[in-house]
């Protein structure tokens, strides 16, 4: 399943579901705006001669608050889900996660350092948090890849072990910074737990170029991941440069993870839950799994964000807490299924 004409119904259905979820996400909130009014108002902005049904206040809420938040949530969910699917394909491990190679540890340390010490170095430290998280995530992945390559010639097992080691070191460094700056713990934990509270069109514009580049690379590598799934010897016999493919996929997935983490904080389990749900629907071919993971990951995180901001309204739950509640039982199910297959 997932080849030729059978792919289009799934992709069209997923795109339609995402559009419906986006409407729900934009409509949810204290200011009452119906999905019909949203469509009408957006049409009025795009087409001459169409009058908007919303007043100035409602239009400002729609365009400046809700739309960028939903768009950013969709981007983050799509990037994390596609990165998860790519990591699982390149490592041939159903438990591989976007934070596997030190991205989370690096992002957490970068953001923590700026939150804790930014006031001493910058006039506006809050604006530096996404950049620091992005740079930290990329440096964490680079350190894990360099360590894994030097220790085990770039094998997948060596990379995973190097990622665990680097993540542990970076997490320890983050904990040390937190202990040295206990007065900033609330702000640090607010970022670490993940969320889209500070979301606007500037954040969308920041993430978009990296999202386009990383997604294009991951989608281009989808047929090569199908070849990798045949096994190392079979893939090499078919002329595939497995080392180059792994490097390209890992780089693209890590770039996607770093971009997502830089604006949303640490949101776990999206990269595990969504690809596994997709595989249950469409099979294991990455030509279909990757684009479906993009669409379903976007819809999933938008829905999670709706839950996070409505369950205890007017307060909000951190997105990372909601995804952990949903993802932890799912992770246990995957672990049990993997164990049963290996017995």
UniProtKB/TrEMBL annotation:
Membrane topology category: Multi-pass membrane protein
CDD domains: TM_ABC_iron-siderophores_like
Regions that span the bilayer: 67-87, 99-122, 128-147, 207-231, 243-274, 286-307, 319-338
Keyword terms, alphabetized: Cell membrane, Membrane, Transmembrane, Transmembrane helix, Transport
Main location as per UniProt: membrane
SUPFAM superfamilies to which the protein is assigned, alphabetical: ABC transporter involved in vitamin B12 uptake, BtuC
Alphabetical list of InterPro entries matching this protein: ABC_BtuC-like, ABC_transptr_permease_BtuC
Family: Belongs to the binding-protein-dependent transport system permease family. FecCD subfamily.
Protein name: Iron ABC transporter permease
Taxonomic lineage: Bacteria, Bacillati, Actinomycetota, Actinomycetes, Streptosporangiales
């Amino acid at each position: 399943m997932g080849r030729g004409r059978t792919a289009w119904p799934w992709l069209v259905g997923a795109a339609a579901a995402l559009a419906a979820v986006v409407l729900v996400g934009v409509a949810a909130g204290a200011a009452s705006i119906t999905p019909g009014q949203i469509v009408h108002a957006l049409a009025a902005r795009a087409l001459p001669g169409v009058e908007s049904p919303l007043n100035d206040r409602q239009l400002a809420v729609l365009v400046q608050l809700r739309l960028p938040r939903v768009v950013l949530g969709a981007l983050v969910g799509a990037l994390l889900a596609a990165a998860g699917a790519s990591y699982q394909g390149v490592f041939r491990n159903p438990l591989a996660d976007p934070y596997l190679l030190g991205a989370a540890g690096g992002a957490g340390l970068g953001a923590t350092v700026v939150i804790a010490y930014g006031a001493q170095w910058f006039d506006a430290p809050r604006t530096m948090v996404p950049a620091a998280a992005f740079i930290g995530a990329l440096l964490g992945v680079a350190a894990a890849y360099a360590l894994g390559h030097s220790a085990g010639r770039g094998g997948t097992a060596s990379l995973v072990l190097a990622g665990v080691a680097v993540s542990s070191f970076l997490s320890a460094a983050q904990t040390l910074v937190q202990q040295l700056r206990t007065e900033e713990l609330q702000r640090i934990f607010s970022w670490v737990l993940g969320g889209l509270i500070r979301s606007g069109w500037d954040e969308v514009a920041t993430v978009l170029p990296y999202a386009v580049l990383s997604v294009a690379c991951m989608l281009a590598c989808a047929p090569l991941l199908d070849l990798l799934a045949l096994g190392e010897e079979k893939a090499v016999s078919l002329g595939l440069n497995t080392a180059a493919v792994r490097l390209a996929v890992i780089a693209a997935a890590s770039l996607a993870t770093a971009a997502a983490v830089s604006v949303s904080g640490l949101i776990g389990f999206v990269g595990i839950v969504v690809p596994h749900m997709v595989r249950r629907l469409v099979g294991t071919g990455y030509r279909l799994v990757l684009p479906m993971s993009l669409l379903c990951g976007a819809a999933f995180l938008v829905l999670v964000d709706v839950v996070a901001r409505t369950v205890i309204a007017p307060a909000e739950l951190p997105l990372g807490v909601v995804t952990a509640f949903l993802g932890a039982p799912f992770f246990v199910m995957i672990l049990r299924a993997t164990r049963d297959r290996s017995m």
